[in-house]
Amino acid sequence: MKATLIFLLLAQVSWAGPFQQRGLFDFMLEDEASGIGPEERVPEFGEMEPLGPVCPFRCQCHLRVVQCSDLGLDKVPSDLPPDTTLLDLQNNKITEIKNDDFKNLKDLHALILVNNKISKISPGAFTPLVKLERLYLSKNQLKELPEKMPKSLQELRVHENEITKVRKAVFNGLNEMIVIELGTNPLKSSGIENGAFQGMKKLSYIRIADTNITSIPQGLPPSLTELHLDNNKITKVDAASLKGLNNLAKLGLSFNSISSVENGSLANTPHLRELHLNNNKLLRVPGGLAEHKYIQVVYLHNNNISAVGANDFCPPGYNTKKASYSGVSLFSNPVQYWEIQPSTFRCVYVRSAIQLGNFK
Ligand SMILES: *[C@@H]1O[C@H](CO)[C@@H](O)[C@H](O)[C@H]1NC(C)=O
Ligand SMILES: *[C@@H]1O[C@H](CO)[C@@H](O)[C@H](O)[C@H]1NC(C)=O
Ligand SMILES: *[C@@H]1O[C@H](CO)[C@@H](O)[C@H](O)[C@H]1NC(C)=O
User: Fold this and answer.
1) Is the per-residue pLDDT at 8 higher than 80?
2) Which residue pairs form cystines in this protein (predicted)?
3) In a domain, 65, yes or no
4) What is the pLDDT of residue 24?
5) Parallel, antiparallel, or unpaired for β 354-355 and 179-181?
């Protein structure tokens, strides 16, 4: 039975995107440990259902996991077992989620609705799901995020929909939220309410890639460790929107139209380890790298940087606590590598970490 579980988990991870699942095994194992699955439980006298265990027609039910993917369903099956912990409805033709669709599923931890045709979710549809931790709605036709999502929610994926607005109210009280994926939606910066994500005290990962936003969202929570905003229309990195992000370790801003990084941006993210700014319009190396203690990866290739100063990357003295760089790229910029003084990279101990041209 472990083999079945692992198969399901792998199937799930394959479309989960770049974020590495961490907690999924834990919660499945927790489920396993929390009680004996329905199959192994010996029914007591008089408890036998006359119709046998419920499993919707053509779905597969095993260990409280209900698998109804790829069945051409146009609505949520009505006879779902009430003790279901994982419900997989991906790759169907469901168009709408109604208020009563999940009304008995108080043990549900994960709901997978990826790749359907959902354009409408009734406001109370998720209210009965008091234990829901993962809600996967990617590849649908939603124009808005669902209202009244369960307070227990930890992970929300709404990649590839038609969302134009992100309102603060939809995240109200979602204090357990850790991961939000909103990429590939027709979002503009004006569509994201200021401070929309601010109230979520455990939020660690946000990805809003492949949209039309033109600036970094304002009012991000200090708990954030990863912010992925690649392939948008962002024109500059403003220090103010990064203020207070003391835990930020990875910042992805590649494939935007960024021509400047405001002074103070790096000082506002003191624990940053990776900064991806490749494929932008930068004219110079961002300020503050030399003083930054932890930054190790700085991608600046495919920009418009025409000069690199001897103090752009490394502090003036040798005796500092700066972490060594493990990846710096500067190729495909107008600066010629022979114009860069060798001392520029004096704080880099692994020479192969620096990629200047076709030549390292
Ligand atoms: C961004 O805007 C352009 C022009 O309005 C549009 O064609 C494109 O589909 C938009 N991109 C996304 C991801 O919505
Ligand atoms: C940013 O900092 C650099 C170096 O400290 C300085 O030369 C430059 O004038 C500053 N730019 C602005 C806009 O303050
Ligand atoms: C690169 O920067 C120069 C100014 O230094 C500017 O004239 C040119 O248009 C820029 N090129 C691109 C592709 O942005």
Assistant:
1) no
2) 55-61, 59-68, 314-347
3) yes
4) 42
5) unpaired
pLDDT value of position 82: 93
3-state helix, strand, coil in the chain (%, to 5): 10, 15, 75
Name all contacts of 334-337 with Cβ < 8 Å and 24+ positions apart: 334/304, 334/305, 334/306, 335/305, 335/306, 335/307, 335/308
Lowest mean pLDDT among 69-73, 162-166, 322-326: 322-326
Q: Please report which ligand is nearest the Cα atom of 212.
A: 1
> Tell me, what DSSP letter sits at residue 24?
H
Spacing, Cα 282 to ligand 3 middle (Å): 9
Hunting for tokens 């007591």 — which residue is that? 44
Distance from Cα 186 to the centre of ligand 1, integer Å: 6
Residue 26 domain flag: no
Identify the domain containing residue 81 by its residue range. 55-134
Q: Is residue 110 part of a domain?
A: yes
Per-residue pLDDT tens digits for 52-64: 458 999 999 999 9
How many A from CA of 304 to the centre of ligand 3? 6
As for ligand 2, residues whose beta carbon falls within 6 Å of it are 263, 287
Nearest ligand by distance to the CA of 162: 1
The chain-wide mean pLDDT, for the chain, equals: 87
Centroid of ligand 2 to alpha carbon of 308 (angstroms): 15
Q: Which atom of ligand 1 is nearest to the CA of 212?
A: 1
Domain tally, the chain: 1
Q: What was the pLDDT predicted at 349?
A: 84
Burial class (CB in 10 A: 0-12, 13-18, 19+), 63: buried
Q: Which ligand is nearest to the CA of 260?
A: 2
Find the residues whose C-beta lies inside 6 A of ligand 1: 186, 210-212
Where is 30: in which H helix or E strand? helix 23-33
87 found inside a domain: yes
pLDDT in tens, 67-100: 999 999 999 999 899 999 999 999 999 999 999 9
Which residue, by CA, sits nearest to atom 14 of ligand 1? Answer: 186
Supply the CATH number for residue 125's domain: 3.80.10.10
